[in-house]
Amino acid sequence: MKTYALVFQGTAYTSKSPKEVEVLENYLFCVNDDGMIEMVIAPGDPAYRATQNTHEVRRLAEGQYLLPGFIDLHVHAPQWAQAGLALDVPLYEWLHTHTFPLESKFSDLEFAADVYDDLVGTLLANGTTTALYFATVHKEASLLLAEICANKGQRGLVGKVVMDDPEQNPEYYRDADTKTALAETEQFIREVKQLAESVKQGVYPVVTPRFIPSCTDEALQGLGELAARYDVHIQSHCSESDWAHEYVQKRFGKHDAAALHDFGLLGQKSVMAHCNFLDDEDADLFARTGTAIGHCPLSNAYFANGVLPLARWMDKGVEIGLGTDISAGYTPSLFDNARQAVISSRMLEDGVDTALPADRRGVPESRITIDEAFYLATAGGGESLSLPIGRLAEGYAWDVQIIDLTAGGMKLPVFGGGDSKRELFQRIMYLCRPEHIREVWVQGEMVHSRSR
Ligand SMILES: Nc1nc2[nH]cnc2c(=O)[nH]1
Prior knowledge:
binds guanine, guanine deaminase activity, alpha/beta, EC 3.5.4.3, Urease, subunit C, domain 1
């Protein structure tokens, strides 16, 4: 009889497909020493009783449910220091008058430690077990963020940001020159890979050209080559707003997707944030290369000048996950972003200009369900990163949030005969707050717990 490091008994929700959530009612989840789910056992299975008899089983209490940990595909870690501020100006102005001045302060490692420590703890408390981070141009502070993720038990994918074009970036905040930007990125990749050797849940270096407007051709080319040489993840912003999209069109005579592809920046391990202005050809290119979209619905409401046709690209088979895009999105919660993904998709389908007749107001077949939004926050994020995370299934990491519907004095409005398990899922997705997240586990280790 096999022995497991951990055995949990409880009811879990996990995505079976992009459209379907499966309820695993009162299952056993057996986790090995590496923090991977080795067996998932249904109540009727003969192994169920045998495993119960031979292990100390952690039984979830009444009102507690398991969800996979959330995967945030787009977080600007330094911008946590301005979360909730400056959301009333366009992207270009926001970058130059608020964001670059703030990010330039991360040359100060003490300030960086304060912000990063608080952010990683906050994300874990919000159920985010994996995050794909932009840090800043500063190599040392970027490494510090990776170390903080490592120490707090979060699976962090971290990029030292490259912005080397002196024409486009202010003197006080940019890489010294292209050669330095590439040399520091390479050094950063090596240092994070070395750190990763002793980190159970993994930390990963990410090649991170901020976006095409901030980088020279030489930097974009060099970063594509580095990513290929070290086989690491790549992230950037792609066709986010009218301004950013038009800038690339003018510079290269093509869309961001094609230009990024020319520089070797699309592939299985690439995640491109936003992508609001992709056309069919761009989306086909994403699907063909395995490039993922990091969809940031709240941020898009402020900065994108439009709504991502999410359902359309999901149907095409493009990999998509969710991002908070702190601080262009103000909340650290992927619950909030899952809700907004549904809301934005409904507004795209119905349209918003009531001066137009209903049949010309929106884009048909754009809506997504809350089940699909859950998929984006979990399994879709895992697929986007090509990591075995985001599902409660054999061969996946034990990255979970234990939701406690009775916690925090915030009882959900369930009356009469109570909810079915399907209804409870919807309540959790729409009404759950950080107070309801009782415990968070990453790779078989508890990394956050909240008493009543
Ligand atoms: N939302 C967002 N878009 C960007 N484009 C370039 N930099 C940024 C950033 O920090 N946030």
